[in-house]
Amino acid sequence: WDVSYLGFISGIFSIFLAVWHIIGRELEFKRFYFLAGGFVWVTLSCLLGIHIMHISQERVEMQLMSSTASYLERISGKINTSFGNWNAVLIASAANSSIKSALTQKDLPVLTNQAKDIYDRMDVFQRVVFYDAEGNPLGIYPHQSTSNGIGFSGEDFFRTTKATYRSFISNAFEDASGEKLIIQTEPIFEENSFIGMIGVMISLNLLSDNYWGDVGDEYNIRALDENGVVVFASDRKLVGSIIDMKGLEEELDKDREIVWLNENMKNPDWKLYVDTLAAPKIQEISNLNIMVTFFIIVNAILTIGISMVISSDGWTNKFSKRRVLPDFRPVHSFNGMS
Length: 338
Description:
Shape: rod-shaped
Helix content: 40-55%
Number of helices: 10
Distance between the termini: 79 Å
Radius of gyration: 40 Å
Number of strands: 10
Largest sheet: 6 strands, antiparallel
């Protein structure tokens, strides 16, 4: 950096001397330091002004990045809290002795009433289903005739829940009616034996409604599951569509007018993307940039002008001419008479 700086000053100074020579001004060597000092000051003020503008822009970008990170954290926390609350409802239901008894005895009316009770407590649930240990659906609410006689033992959500003995949140899928859903499960145990599970189907559209109040217009948000399906987005038209994550990140990287961040969520296993336009924030420092630029130009003109005047031969002659006083010495004549 030091070499570049010295090279920059030397180059600018050489150009100025060349221009001076072309216009034919006389330069007094004894006053050369005025010219050199003026150019050093112009150079320093230019670099200082550029540095101020650069620091101001960096500060705005850092503030924008910080606010985007805070927004991402808030949305991520909202999603985690929502699924945690829903899971708490499922855990409480899985521990209900009457549900365990009805599931063991395959008491459909009791299980249906219990499913209705869970459904009424949450606005985003599309359907609540109890499954026995073999994956057969019992106690469906709201009732779905297409589920009658269908076993789900081969489905990923059932196999994963049964194998891990833990709650599970699936990737997005399409039900028989064509609606995009995800399913959240909770295993049910009786004397440490797996006897079935609860599954709540959550509509992606209702999920978007649940988070819509926290989105706003300043940020663009997209949440993708492992298959690239958009499970939640600020642009509702994208919900349910498939996006290539790698292509999305490359697109965001190429766009120099935005700031973006992402987060890998654990439960649910989503990737959350948030981006916002940087131009409105950077525009806020445009007045400062204009003022700094104006100062640099005026300072350069005045400094160079004054340096040229002080260093020129005309300025030197004006102040170096000595005043000639009259000679008052007596004048002698040739005849000796004064």
